[in-house]
Amino acid sequence: MTATPNITHWSDRVDLAAAFRWTVKLNMHEAVANHFSLAVNPSGTQFLINPKGRHFARLTASSLVEIDADDPRTMQRPDAPDPTAWGLHGAIHRACPHARCVMHVHSIHATVLASLADSHLPAIDQNSAMFHNRVVVDDAYGGMAFEAEGERCARLLADPKISTMVMGNHGVLVIGHTVAETFNRLTYFERAAETYIRALQTGRPLRVLPDAIAEKTAREWEDYPGYARDHLSEIKALLNVESPGYAS
Fold it and tell me: Which of 12, 185, 40 shows the shortest CA–CA distance to 105?
């Protein structure tokens, strides 16, 4: 995990590369689509993101691209990101400085949830309670996430309490302060969506938690000491044995 000379934000790059690689392990990736980004300056406008057309399984710390959401020349660069990455992630980093890390996927169960007429996730277990009153549902899908669509989506994340956006007819987007926090949240949302969908498939009534208990549990998740950090640390420990090239 030695830093490559002349490449900045090395530990952040390693964390982000690990998240990409583990997303493949969880089968939450899709072809060469979807993007993760991480702000690296105080205002949040400069950020790391995956390069255009690269499979998550081949991403490395040094291959991540650093761009500036306030620089309109970005899309003329030879290493310009995918235009939907610029449209969605650029808009969010420009408008929402609290969204330090942004992860967007079309994972199976979250996308099933996003395809339902009612895409809200009720608190039916401890995992889904993590998201109680912290999810916004976008029910106005307007096409692929080029600049106008990205700006519309960014406006839905203005409330710092919101951690997750169910993108109706599209997928899911999760934000956080660190790679560890955001990736932990992303994996738990996918698991919670799967639990909910499987519960619906039984056709039997759901046992929904009372609002007060759901909110208490959500806060307990937020205050749980070091859990997300430990999760990512273990992922990196596994990758260091299985595929250490991610940190190159």
Answer: 185
Strands 46-49 vs 35-39: parallel, antiparallel or unpaired: antiparallel
The reply to whether 3 falls in a domain is no
Asked if residue 5 is part of any domain, the answer here is no
- What integer best gives the mean pLDDT of the chain? 96
Domain count, the chain: 1
Instruction: Specify whether the CB–CB gap between 109 and 197 falls below 8 A.
Output: yes
The domain containing residue 124 runs over which residues? 10-247
Domain assignment present for 132: yes
CB 66 within 8 A of CB 90: no
Residues 36 and 24: beta-carbon distance below 8 Å: no
Q: What is the pTM of this model?
A: 0.96
Sheet containing 101-105: give its strands across: 65-68, 46-49, 35-39, 101-105, 171-176, 164-167, 135-138
- In this prediction, what percent of the chain has a pLDDT beyond 70? 98
140-171: pLDDT as tens digits: 999 999 999 999 999 999 999 999 999 999 99
CATH number where 174 lies:
3.40.225.10
Can you tell me the distance from the alpha carbon of 224 to that of 184, in angstroms, rounded to the nearest whole number? 12
Q: Which residues pair with 135 in a beta bridge?
A: 164
The secondary structure element, H or E, covering residue 211 is helix 211-223
CA distance 39 to 179: 10
Instruction: Provide the sign of the torsion angle of the four alpha carbons 46, 246, 224, 220, taken in this order.
Output: positive
In 3D, which of 110, 158, 100 has the Cα closest to residue 131? 110
The answer to whether residue 1 sits within a structural domain is no
